[in-house]
Request: fold
Amino acid sequence: MIAVPAFFTEYQTLVNAELDRLVAGDGTPVWRSMAYTVHAPSKRVRPVLTLLAAELCGGVPARAVPVAAVMELVHASSLILDDLPSMDDAPLRRGRTSNHLEFGEAIAILAAFGLLNLAYGTLARAYDAALAARLSSLVADAVGTDGLIGGQAVDLLATDQEISFETLERIHRGKTGALFSAAATSGAIIAGAPADALGSLAAYAKNLGLAFQIIDDVLDVEGDPAETGKAVREDAKKTTFVSFSGVDGARQLALELCQTADRALEPFGRRADRLRDLSKFVAGRSW
Amino acid sequence: MIEPGLDRRVDELRQQLRALGYLDAGVNRFVLGPATDTRPPFAIALLASFRVGCLAALLLGPAAAIGLNSRLPGLVTGPRDAIVVAIYLGLLLGSAVSVVAFLASLLVASLAGEGIARRARPWSRVAGAVVAVACLVYLTLWWRSANAGFGWAAPIWTAFALAVAVAISLLLGHVVTVAAFAVILARRGNGELHGAAPRFTSSSSSWKMTLAAALVAFAGAAAVLIVTAPRDPGRAAHVPLAVVSSGLRIRLIAIDGVDPGVLEELASTGRIPRLAAALTGTRAPLGLQDTDTTRDPARGWTTIATGRTPEDHGVGGLETRRVAGIQGSVVAGERSPLGHAIRTATDLLRLTRPAIASGNERRVKTMWDVASDAGLRTAVVNWWATWPAPFNSESGIVVSDRATLRLERGGALDAEIAPASLYEPLRARWPAIRNDAAARGRAAAASLAWGDSDTRTTLERSAELDAIQLALTREVSTSLPDLSAVYLPGLDIAQNTLLGRRDAALAPSVVAARLQALRDYYIFLDRLLADVLSPAADELIVVVTEPGRVTAAADGLMGVMGRSAAPKREAAGRVTDVAPTVLHALGVPISRELAGAPLTALFDDGFARRYPVRQMETYGRPSTNRSARSGQPLDQEMIDRLRSLGYVK
Reply:
């Protein structure tokens, strides 16, 4: 097991503080349902990626904290929806009972929409109009039919069916890759990075996102629920990377994807070491 | 540890991931560098197009220089010229590609409504494909025209050239795609550009896709090459350049500035008996040329020497331009006001400077080149565009149009005379040749009424020039060449000096006096040519005249006398018929590439019967070997000389 890089704590603290502020709520069931998933134990990989990208491109991380938190809000929203009985019907998430089992399906759906709504509102309040519009558009694309929604739709239709490798990649690109790319790109945009830097970061995020998902598939087969925080063999009825390559092959591909992600950072030199640490963590994670 | 048999599956997945855009860290940093978030689409398009243009300059400059060298053989005379030409062409083509990329990016971006922006990738690929196809077609056609007819006759070299063209086109198409994509999404105004851009790199760097695109492009280029290959249904079997000797030696005398009307008048009164015998007996009016050709001696006399049109032989005019940094020269171009303005502008900017037409611009062989190749002995004196003199073991004698300048000034040869071994003997004899020529001029002036002192001076100078050329011909013809040719400029120079364009109109009495003096110059020429116009038993004398720069709108003439010449007879001809007629008389087969044909009617029946016209495919390209060039070039001296003689303004 590879431990979370030390710098993670610093960024996690920043993000958690922002999430605390944003999801304080008024104690109503919807707010409690929102906070239940958002404040559950999490690695915060996506928001940390946003902050690291902003820092790498010369920006002030604090300025990127709102959009980093937005990435986590969107992710949390997608987790709630993903676990619903009409979707994956998962009992366990982030080491806890799934949201809909805790608050009921109707409240869970409302909480998911509440988080999405909060995300867009946060962007509108935290940034000037032009930047907020660009970031909103970026998030909308990551959530939309080419992103999370599209990926989940293909995933649902493929349940209990044999699917091709291309279809599997399409699912993961939508469900995981889109938000990883948006997370890295939004941080760079906040820092006003040039296109070549953004291109490098996007290449990094794309490869890292898929590696992250492949490791997820591996952990579903051989992970410890105590560590992963979710039920194992949940995806047994689905085609995963492991179905195509076996556990060892999947780990090998994930490692190569992380190495590719690192190569994309070459133009940044040593300044990108933290992102390299992140990819190292993703490749070796056990939770 | 991966289980046995899994390696292959993992490798297949790896390939699929690559095809889907993973496992590729490359990004288009070069093109996307200027696409910062704060820049408007216009600026991004401009800066990205500039970078694309730089890339194109690097790729297309050298490729185009190779092609241009084939089209303009006089331009590149060495590696240094090749590099400079590549830089010039790189700048030119790079700018052109920049403009095209800029316009393509903006065009696609201007169409980028929400619907198109959503499909930015396919639209930008369309823009890139258009540029790639245009680039490939251009390079292919360039290759075809540069190697006119070469094509698949040299399949390996052609395939290599096409492969280079394909690679260049694909690369340019790709970078234009990326630039267009950047502009579309920048116009749309969100950050998706940067998340999506690498997918271009990865998908197009998939070796399978790239290979497939390259193969399709190669096949397309090959098809273009085949479809546009010149058709020549009349192609006959190759006939070697073998002489069926007629036993004739040809002496060709070229006289510029002859007015057929004056010639007829003087001949009818018996005042020029030798010229009359040569030009009013068996002869062929050569038809009216376009006045550009007759007014421009380099263009017109190269047409006569080669039997090809100016478009074919490449010597478009007396004045050429030397491009800064290059030893070679290019044709000065259009005679239009626009062409003149461009020449003036580039001269002012010191990008070009005037130069005089030379053999470097000539793309085809002259009649004496062909005769030399066929193993015949040749000597040519003072013909236009014969400098730099070629040199190889089979070459004949060439006393070029710069030879008298070199003989006057001395110093080491700069390819003015070939073979170089002739230079020292001629240099030793030069004072005597010059004094004798001057004496002939003075004697003629004394015995003929050459009018006032200005007129007399002009005609004496012309007489001296003509006498020098004939003396040089005698000096180099000691071994009785099978073909000797000499160009006499005196009459044209005198005519142009005395009657050419001038600011103030001349008084009628002055014009009349000068016309009379010019008539007397015909008489001088008749006397000067007395020895030359007396053919030996095995000689055929061919006299060719052109009306020159003043009386441009008149016929040229070709007269023959001596062995195998027909009895008095007149046949219609063209200026391009001179070279094939001379070559036929020597027994050389006639190339189908020539614009003219032998005027067989000028020969007697016995000759025509014994020596039917034989044809062959091509004489090939002229040799690029030049005679010794250790001396100081006489470029400026040549311009000054021609200016003093009224050829150059």
Observations:
- Chain B touches chain A through 39 residues (CB under 8 Å).
- The first helix of chain B runs from residue 6 to 19.
- The two ends of chain B are 87 Å apart (CA to CA).
